[in-house]
Amino acid sequence: MQAGFQSALAAQAMFPVLSPDEMAGHYSENEVSKAVRISRLTQKGGAWDLIARRVADIPEYRERFGKIHPNEDITFVAIANVIVDFVAYEWRADNSLFDRAMSGDEDLSNEAVQGMKLFYGKARCGTCHSGWFQTDHKFHSIAIPQIGPGKSARFEDHARDDGRLRVTGKVDDAFAFRTPSLRNVTLTGPYGHNGAFASLEQVVRHHLDPLMSLRSYSIEMAVLPEFPGVYDDQPLDDQEHVQRIAQSNVLPAVHLTDEEVAALLSFLGSLEDQAIRLGILDDVPSGLAVDR
């Protein structure tokens, strides 16, 4: 590990560029993925150097880095630090109606107040979605239906995602995923670790009876891009696999009326921070297309 990361968040921000399943690609696809595959990361000429060189080869990035860190080379660590400066500013969600209500500056609607009481009471959401950012940061299995390619090693051919088990090797961690924060949850669909639910109401209702939801799930509930030859519902056809997911579930069923579900959704809406910060740029120095 090289020194210089200004925070743990800065180090974490650079994990995706080295992940074959996220940004690096798989072996033989590009020079970065090859370096990652043979564990050449921080060495001279390794993946960190290759990524930093790509950025340094773009004149406008060199100019912008020069304004921030004059007379310094563009390194992987420097890139991580400027990315996290942006992330920490742009993705804050601490000025929601909920925050202002808790500080006494504004009031929640009557429906949102009812929803908050349900959230921290009868619906038991606050058991895991605890604290100011509505997460205990722990891992739980809540029987989210498995869709998509899953995660597997090079020698495996399954389409499942074992969740935390892949990290710890503990059977009790099978199909467990970290509790997400619910800040801006109205804006962060699709929902579930794999995007199995397109709407917030769908995933809220899943929490109310995970086993029934799992067994009645239809892949039409997800919004998926068209990829020829892709069979995203393969895991759903494996009834033994579905049963293992069901057996791992830790959430008890809770009955809420439609009116109570609506109130819960109203409270979740109060967690949305509507502040406009930098937003999406029209273009970037690399010239790559910006998805708006």
Give the structure's gist in a few sentences.
This protein has 292 residues and is mainly alpha-helical.
Q: What would your notes on this structure say?
A:
With 292 residues, the protein is mainly α. It has 13 helices and two strands. It has helices at 8-13, 31-37, 47-56, 59-68, 76-90, 97-102, 110-119, 165-168, 200-208, 210-216, 234-237, 239-248, 258-269, and strands at residues 139-140, 177-178. The radius of gyration is 22 Å and the shape is globular. The model has no long low-confidence stretch (mean pLDDT 92).
Distance between the termini: 35 Å
Chain-averaged pLDDT: 92
* Global shape: globular
Radius of gyration: 22 Å
- Give me the number of helical elements: 13
Beta-strand share of residues: under 5%
Q: Poorly predicted ranges (pLDDT <50, ≥5 residues)?
A: none
If strands are numbered along the chain, what order do they take across the biggest sheet?
A: 1-2
Architecture blueprint of SSEs:
Elements: H1 8-13, H2 31-37, H3 47-56, H4 59-68, H5 76-90, H6 97-102, H7 110-119, E1 139-140, H8 165-168, E2 177-178, H9 200-208, H10 210-216, H11 234-237, H12 239-248, H13 258-269
Helix pairs in contact: 2-3, 7-13, 9-10
